From TrEMBL, chain A:
Its main location: membrane. This is ABC transporter permease. GO terms for molecular function: transmembrane transporter activity. It is found in: Cell membrane. Pfam families: BPD_transp_2. It is a multi-pass membrane protein. The keyword Membrane applies.
Amino acid sequence: MRLKVEPRRQVSKPLQYATPPLSVLGTVVAAFVLFAIMGYDPLRALYDLFVAPLGNVQGLSELALKASPLVMIGVGLAAGFRANVWNIGAEGQLMMGAIAGGGVALAFYGREGWWILPLMSLAAVAGGMAWAAVPAFLKTRFGVSEILVSLMLTYVAEQFLSYLVLGPWKDPEGMNFPQSRMFSDSALLPVLFDGTRVHAGVLVSLLVVVVAWVVMSRSILGFEIRTVGLAPAAARYAGFSQTRVVWLTLLATGGLAGLAGLFEVAGPIGQLIPKITPGYGFTAIIVAFLGRLHPLGILLAGLVMALSYIGADQAQVDMGLPNAATGLVQAMLLFFLLASDFLVRYRVRLVRPAATSEPAPAQKATA
Amino acid sequence: MEGNLSQTTLTAGHTAGTDERLDLRGITKRFPGVVANADVSLAIRPGEIHALLGENGAGKSTLVKIIYGILQPDEGEVRWNGTPMIIPNPHAARALGIGMVFQHFSLFEAMTVLENVAIGLDSPEKPSKLAERIRGVSAAYGLPLDPLRDVHTLSVGERQRIEIVRCLLLEPKLLIMDEPTSVLTPQEVGRLFETLRKLAAEGCSILYISHKLAEIKALCDRATILRGGRVVGGCDPKVETASSMASLMLGAQIKPLARRATTALGPSRLVVGGLDLPADTPHGIGLRGISLDVRAGEILGIAGVAGNGQNELFLALSGERTVETPGTIMIDNTRVGHLGAERRRALGLCAVPEERNGHAAVPEFSLVDNAVLSGHRREKLLAGGLIRAGRALDFATRIIKSFDVRTPGPGAAASSLSGGNLQKFIVGREILQKPGVLVVSQPTWGVDAGAASAIHAALLSLTSEGSAIVVISQDLDELLAISDRIAVINVGVLSAARPTASVSLEELGLLMGGMHEADVAKAASPEREMADAP
């Protein structure tokens, strides 16, 4: 007896769309069992994780706040993934964007003016793009895997940020804490609703979703990206340049990640600190796949993942659930998603080698 | 063609009897929305070479897959030597003594012949012993093969020998050959036929699947003809004419091509002079000093055995690979050597690659998207970077209508079309763009006779509008039928083009086999030709 994996003849379309909700359900069930084993009240933990944050304005506004960078980066990553460009270093691009944009804020420290925020945004986009340009150049020029380069550059960015806030950019009045000055008012994102931390960046991420949707589904550029990903030879035949698509998708993702980074430091944080992200750049990879690489799906997926962040905080405060629970829940979600995707495309069969690999006389056999 | 092949019982169709090696009775196989085989009966005797004829989509592949254990019939019975059998998988089929040589080989290029054969065996064997057996079988059946050669150094004909030897090692009682000659030179075809006849003389049954009616006439004892999943008749191919078999297969008389009298040719539209292009992969073929000149209203045929630089030539002409010297390739007196595919398309050069899936079309895309793929520029399907959905739909619909593409609609995925229908769509897509120069590779490979003649007619009518066409094909009959002049490509070198009327099949075959024009007269022995093969 052995297990055999074989491709399904017909891949069910509805099922493909059903896998994200199914994997959320799977995660809930598995988390229930896990929390029970760990000795926590599983129902209460799940309530804290997935329901409690939705019950009040505070929770909802935090949801929007945390979903915004995930969605923005996820949309960019998805465009790349469609073209088989595997940028997994959005985290580093996010930090470089925050550094570049934050640098502008610090350079104009104490100055007021409407132009400071746009300038910071431009710098942030440029910073993220510059960081993404490295894997793009190495891939298109020397065929180096963008997966490794983009990932490793994340650690470089992390060290660079630490160096800045511990050294040259350290707040002179900051009691030697590793952090920059607080940004001036002109360098901070306007808050949309009083009493919450929801800032203008949330609107930008919604705009990004709409633009990405139009570009990916209606424009020749999106067509190009999809063609390069599905059939590189057909793309060359059509005259689409793979090099161009690699550059474009990496730069777009880098720019969006950089902007998302800026929105963190110019939004809820208000200064540069060594750790400006709880891993948004990596979580956005899950968001992109959970959202089926479609901008609207990514919007929903971003909200779900944001919920897991906020819910874990809630559970930590409420019942002392370890913080690692966030990572656990997110990882389970990705696992269930990949597993159910696999099962939609393939089926697993139990086969008995002895019984099936010999030709057998039919039942009516006279022999 | 003598010996045991002179059987007299040539009655067509199914005859009951216990001396049949394979006896299919009332085989029916349904797929969602289509009946691939309906009540198909077929009997093959020991030592018989039996042809299975039919258009694409007639159900040949399904039937063969049932015999080889890849598919299970919904109804009907498979009898092997008189005993009803269930053949659950290919392993079981091989255990019974059924061998199959597929149209597309499954070989690992970087491995030796021996390693490739060893991988395909159901029970492992000692390499030294296996090498000895390979040598034995290849000597016995006239299939020269060195077990220690790397596969990537072998010609297509030699690769096919590996597949055949792999089957013969199992001492098959029934050998299924799926379109075996599509990649061979006429000389190689001759050698293959000798091997098959020898096998048959030893009592091995052969099920021979082919579109090439002349081959079936030359080789086969009986033919079963499928149309729309049903057996529409059987015949003795030696008695029938090729065209009578074709009409049985198609269900209607096919129109002979109305080859127009060569009219006065216009000016040169595509000129290539001294094109050199290095190989871009370790096992690729570099182009050396390619020169050609195609005039308005003319079809230039390029013959050659697969893997002699046809792909590279196609890519160099379509603009998917460029050269640094612009003047090497000229479209209507414009230097385009350095321009990519899209710029060349704008100048009037359209192209149809050999590979439909993933090159000429994106299988996952709808037909509308596939129309956009190459038509977005010339058909003005874009506005401000956005795709004009209405115009794209119109264009796709026009292709479907004009070229009789059978599909549920323009929204259907390209992968849902049969090979012939997709090919009609692709050829139609390029022709409707009214190209000044059209480069077509293998326009009718794996396409049924009806679709093939429609494609040929479309190409001919395009020339009458003043286009210049280059057809790269391994099908000599096709080239002889439609080209005005023919050149042969061998190891990246293109021979001078000659008027079709003045070349003989034998001459072309020798050129394709690597003989230089001076050697052609000497008509070298097949051994020599084999040793020289790239």
